[in-house]
Amino acid sequence: MNYTKSESKEWGRASIKGQWTTMITPFTPEDKIDEEGLQKNIERVLKLGTKGMGFSWNMGEFWSLTREERTWLQETAPELVKRRAMTAFQITDTCMADIVGMGNKAEELGYDFVILAPPYIMAKTEEKVIDFVSKVASRINIGIAFYNSPQFGITMSAKGLSRLADIGSLIAIKEASFNTQLGIDTHLLAGKKAVVSVPDEEIFFFEEYYGFHQQTMFANTSDWRFDTPESHHYVNFINLATAGKLEEAKQAYQKVRPAKIVSRDWWSRIAARTGGALPVQMVKYWGEVMGMAGGPVRDPVYPLTEEEKAELRSDIKKLNLAKNVETE
Which end of the chain is more exposed for a tag (fewer CB within 10 A), N or C? Predict the structure, then answer.
């Protein structure tokens, strides 16, 4: 952390740019965190040109980790990254003391900022969420990015997110409701007070009409699912779009769009059968096909069936994203 608390918003605006990735937490067949696999994944993502990495995020399965595992991950990730990319750690929890402890630990370990969502049990109103985040912010010095997602039991409105952006050390908002209008409204109402990122590539194509600019694609998995160390079509598209080069970005997106269509189809398909839960099992297996370490998912997530794995491998092979993708 190379900024003071009072400088956090200015630092965020100047520093949080380009493609950020969500790092999965790989598990061994024995259901232990795979440290070798984690190192392998970090090295692979670094070769894609990604600017930052998020650990213990939703696709990182923080909700399934033991307290000891989460602490190990928080302490180990910076040692493996070695400042070759920016890093952030999710501190979302239902216990204020644990959140504050993880926030202070993140500062001590050299993370660039932390991400925080509602505590997903008792915070059922926007007023309560704002009060909770304000209290966390008053007790830690490191900058906070707020995560707006229905996965946490409440989806904040654009007005509520704008009020959160008034908090002095709230530097960014990940608006992941997958409601395009809410994403646009958040940019318009909160975008001058905090860095706003909507994890939908097509958000960039609304910029000229509405007059906002998204400077970062904040923590998604598309870079390591769509790109390889030899081919960076996705990261190139994000770099162009976040730099405001929209005409070039539109052309670059044509190389990304086929993979996005397949991904969206699988995402919707798995989410539909799980009541809207994030399709972690699909994302981890897609990563495995692309050469990442993934491993099993933990309860209550159901793994893909063998038939689904074969079908997904076939779909990825047809996209020609990576060499040596087998369909058997």
Answer: C
